[in-house]
Amino acid sequence: MKAIWLKLFLLVTGIAFTIQSHAQVCTGSLGDPVISEDFGSGANPGTPLGGNVTNYNYFGRDCPNDGSYTIVSRTNGCFGNTWHVLTQDHTGNPNGYMMVVNASNDPGLFYTQKTEAGQLCPGTTYEFAAYITNLIIPSACNGQSTKPNITFSIETLAGDVLKTYNTEDIPPTDDVVWKKYGTFFTLPPGVTSVVVKMINNAPGGCGNDLALDDITFRACGQVIQAGFGSFNGSPEQDVCLGDNTTVTLKAKVDGNPVYQWQYNTGGNNWADIPGANSDTYIRPPDNAVLGTHLYRVGIVVNGGDISSLNCRVYSLPLTVTVIPLPVATAITPQTFCEGSTLTLTASGGVTYMWSAPNLAPTLQNPLVINNITLADAGTYTVVPISAQNCTGAPVNVQVSIIPKPVANVITVAPICAGEHTQLGASGGLHYKWTPSTGLDHDDMPNPVATPLVTTIYSVDVSNDYCTDTKSITVTVNQNPVADGGGDKNIFKGQSVKLNGTVKGDQITGISWSPTTALDNPASATPVASPTDDIAYIMTVTSQNCGISVSGPVFVKVYKKIIIPNAFSPNGDGINDQWNIEALFTYPESLTQIFDRYGKRVYQSMGYSKAWDGTYNGTALPEGTYYYVIDLKNKTPKLSGWVFIVK
User: Fold this and answer.
1) d(Cα 637, Cα 609) in Å, to the nearest integer?
2) For the residues of 300-320, what is the DSSP string, one character each?
3) How far is C-alpha 265 from the geometric centre of its chain's CA atoms?
4) Does pTM top 0.70 for this prediction?
5) Tens digits of residue pLDDT in 63-101
6) What is the CATH superfamily name and number for domain 408-477?
7) How far is CA 608 from CA 487, 576, 580, 635, in A?
8) Residue 644 CB burial class (10 angstroms; 0-12, 13-18, ≥19)
């Protein structure tokens, strides 16, 4: 019932708080601590507390005995590992000290602090709080460890108790748990100084070991909302170095409080800003110093004196960060050829603004202008812009545009293979021809070209900086080449096709001589039907590249062989021999006769004497015999049968 009445009272006065396990923790705005003990930081162990602060014995290591304490930033393996291992203080600072307490066997007072006389403001609400953790692990003491039980007491200097608060038993936890315990109260009239105490209500022995950190006593008031531009605006504001811009800070508090804006002068030091006593503070354009600038607004609680620092509560800090201006990297003068692509790249900022006499302002970077003209020459200016939209000093780049040379080339007439022609180019100071194949020089305007085949020559015409390119095609007509195709063999009465081939360009005529027995003397492949041996020659004519005459093509005309298929060697004087007409004209020929079993029964080189149907002087019986005649003139062998009649 008492807690409900207190909550209603504080809500009426505008003070916010939270009750957690009977702890009364202020969740409104807080003032700067009148009493603040974070025990400092550094190497282990820390400095002992004064005798007026604690009656426990100082123990200069990290595991104090019963009735002792130490100031350390960590613990390690205390009492057979029955304690938690602490590696940092409650704020997470690995070098931050904390007060480690091994409770006395006799419960009682173990921490005392007091404010100076006249330091406090009657009618102001104050919070007394500390962060506490139980050092004992749950399994220690067979799970029956003594639990810390702390009473917070606020008293007058005369010993009158103004407020007490009991944490109740603080249970062991599996992990290190820092918890804020505390209470708050309103200082009665006439009281301007207090004594704050912490009393351990449980005995020592197995358990009741704890760590303390960040003990504070400070004013507690209603929530102050503050921001840039509006009370619920951002708590951070960036401004540019040297920018002549003011920044507006706004605050809001219920009721009609008295305000005082402050500026942080370094560390935890704050200074009042003269005349800044409303809910709005317009920060002047003080942007000449880089870095972070902190501001906050304080109010007094219950109509107290704004000039009394310990009567105030403050908003969370608002941060003004003065951002350095970006510095664009200098760009050396640039030269480009007319018609090429201009590319300028700035660095040193996040975005960039480019401008030039012939260019509308643009944020493009790299700046790219295709097909530039002489009008694009001049001074280009780039302004770097930071991520916070701060603009740096402009950087100028001088851009020169060199006129592009105009290459001119002559047209050359076709040539024949083996001939030469002169190329010609103009329009520049320097020349380079590619390919260099067939050229007497490749670095002059008028080289002599003797290509073997049609070639496209390109020439780069330059004026020491810019280049234009043109091409010349040299057409090479290949000279005529006549090939008769080789000698031929035929029998009288036969025909043969001559295998002439023609190569070259602009062929205007083909002719064979003599024309005797040719069906088409103007064709490369006429059909020849001579009756006697003859030699032909083919001539090919090109329009511009002369003539070509083939070697002779000899056509050998053999006498026609007439092979009878029967004879009767019976001695009657009629058809007694196998007479083969004209075979005697082939003195190197080979004639062979075989019986039906494949046995050779006759052979003759040449045919000066006709076969009489005998084998080794003995007449062969009537029947069919088979012949093979090789004329030895590169003509196909003749084969067939002959019948001996009796």
Assistant:
1) 20
2) ESTT--TT-GGGEEEPPPEEE
3) 45
4) no
5) 999 999 999 999 988 998 999 999 999 999 999 999 999
6) Immunoglobulins (2.60.40.10)
7) 28, 16, 10, 20
8) buried
